[in-house]
Write a structure and sequence with these properties.
The chain has 311 residues and is mostly helical. It contains 13 helices and no strands.
């Protein structure tokens, strides 16, 4: 009995060590597919883009050899007034789209979170634009924006009794970007709405019951229970919406091609035109690297500011 008892700890120690090693291999195996996909489709393309940005690589191979130009492409971009115009336009678009799109998504989520008949049907209908192709949406809204006899102008003329002149929604520099904001907010707010609905459903009902017992009214429950419970959701929605806004391209490419007078030119449209129309792949890669760094810095600043203000 004594020999058996003394051998038990040694026998038990080996399976525990093996179990730890086996668990480590299992965790590595579970992470490996995600790490491999991120490496292949994110890290490697970014490194290749950075290397290409340091050369004069054309889109189509030419007899002349590719030269290493260092930071020459970056310096040329920073001296190009059209790049700064495109950056200002996409910043303006982001500044407008955040309150419009996120506010509409939040209000819709609050409405659809209430108990009502056909609740799931309404959720599906409100989410439908988010899964509709942006090309189809642009064609439909292009018809609505048509000047001077489009549906929007007809409605405005009817409501104003003909006192308001038709608006050239896509041909007027003062209205073009605003029109794209309306289109984009309507098409994409369904995604943010679903995220907010998930955040609302994650708030325990016990917190609302306790607030009612304490005598809190609906506004107080919203401000002291709902809003604190949605802090992580707010951060996620703002960061994701900002990233998507800086990637604005399809609406511009289909409806305005960057015009009128470069009022809707965006960084991505500028990059695509440089890479494919002008066939300057190295130059376009430099634009993509700059855009990536800008979006990364803005996302980090947003996160830090929201944490500082306890949002």
């Amino acid at each position: 009995m004594t020999l058996q008892q003394s051998a038990e700890p040694a026998v038990a120690a080996r399976p525990a060590w093996r179990r730890d090693r086996g668990r480590l291999f299992q965790e590595i195996g579970m992470l490996a597919p995600a790490v491999a996909l991120l490496t292949i489709f994110l890290i490697v393309p970014f490194l290749l883009s950075f290397w290409t940005a340091m050369t004069n690589q054309p889109l189509v191979p030419r007899p002349t050899p590719v030269r290493f130009v260092g930071f020459g492409n970056f310096l040329r971009i920073l001296k190009d007034d059209l790049f700064w115009t495109s950056l200002w336009n996409v910043s303006r678009f982001t500044f407008w789209i955040l309150p419009v799109q996120c506010g509409l998504a939040f209000a819709t989520a609050l409405l659809l979170h209430q108990k009502m008949p056909f609740q799931n049907l309404f959720r599906g209908l409100f989410f439908l634009p988010a899964i509709t192709s942006m090309v189809v949406v642009c064609v439909i809204w292009g018809t609505l924006f048509q000047y001077p006899t489009g549906p929007f102008n007809q409605v405005i003329g009817f409501l104003s009794g003909g006192t308001i002149e038709p608006i050239d929604w896509l041909g007027d520099p003062n209205w073009a970007m605003f029109s794209i904001v309306l289109l984009s907010a309507w098409q994409a707010y369904g995604f943010q709405m679903i995220v907010y609905l998930a955040g609302l459903q994650s708030i325990p009902d016990e917190l609302y019951d306790a607030a009612r017992i304490d005598g809190a009214n609906a506004l107080q429950r919203f401000w002291h229970v709902t809003m604190p419970g949605l802090r992580p959701t707010h951060v996620f929605v703002l960061v994701i919406t900002t990233i998507q806004a800086f990637k604005l391209y399809t609406q511009v490419a289909i409806l305005t091609q960057g015009g009128p007078k470069s009022s809707t030119e965006t960084v991505v449209h500028y990059m695509v035109r440089s890479g494919f129309e002008e066939q300057k792949l190295g130059y376009a890669s430099a634009v993509s690297v700059i855009l990536f760094l800008i979006v990364l810095v803005i996302a980090l600043l947003q996160r830090q500011l929201l944490r500082r203000f306890d949002v």
